[in-house]
Amino acid sequence: MLERTINAARSQPVGAAAAAIAAIGLAAILGAYFFQYVIGLPPCPLCLEQRIAYYVSIPLAAMVLLGVSVGSSRKVLMLALFAIAAAMLWNAGLGVYHSGVEWRWWPGPQDCSGAVPNFSAGGSLIEQMNRTRVVRCDEAAWRFLGLSLAGYNVLISLTLAVIAVWGVAAAWKSRPFEA
After folding, report:
1. Is residue 47 a contact partner of residue 149, using CB atoms and an 8 Å limit?
2. Which fold has domain 2-108+137-174?
């Protein structure tokens, strides 16, 4: 079975790359939902922003798979994989930034790592407390082997970017472009 899978990946690298990106990306976003809804770790604004690349890349990978099945232009399929690689590289950069904020290497955005509101500034204290709900970006809610979820997002995003670039490179080498 492994040999059959490897042969299929070699014969159709664009489809194999798209399938891997869709599966791994879906597993990653479902993992994020698991931590949010089952374990109860609310995401910070940076965490939510890091999900955008998955929301773009997973459907795009599914469309690439559809394009492979209906015989779409190889150039279009390669461009889509290149767009996935770019989105995942951007996401990896955002994850590095988020990890750096968690490790306090640099300051984070004010909306999730800024100063705590001044409750003594006047007005109704209860109203101010009810309006204030900050999930801090500079505090890792969970770590495993020294990496937070933002750190794991960097690893997953880089992996997906490499897979997308592999798909583009393999398709490029498979046959020259027609004039």
Report:
1. yes
2. Bromodomain-like (1.20.1550)
Domain boundaries in the chain?
A: 2-108+137-174
Q: How far apart are CA 105 and CA 102, in angstroms?
A: 8
Give the span between the Cα atoms of 10 and 98, in whole angstroms.
36
Q: Provide the residue type at 145 as one letter.
A: L
Integer Cα distance of 22 and 88 in angstroms: 12
Q: For 11-25, 47-61, 143-157, 160-174, which range has the lowest pLDDT when averaged over its residues?
A: 143-157
pLDDT digits (tens, 9 = 90+) for 128-150: 656 656 666 666 676 678 777 77
Q: Token digits for 167?
A: 């798909």
Query: CA 42, CA 109: separation in Å to the nearest integer?
Result: 17
Task: Report H helices in the chain.
Answer: 2-11, 13-33, 45-50, 52-70, 74-102, 110-113, 125-131, 149-174
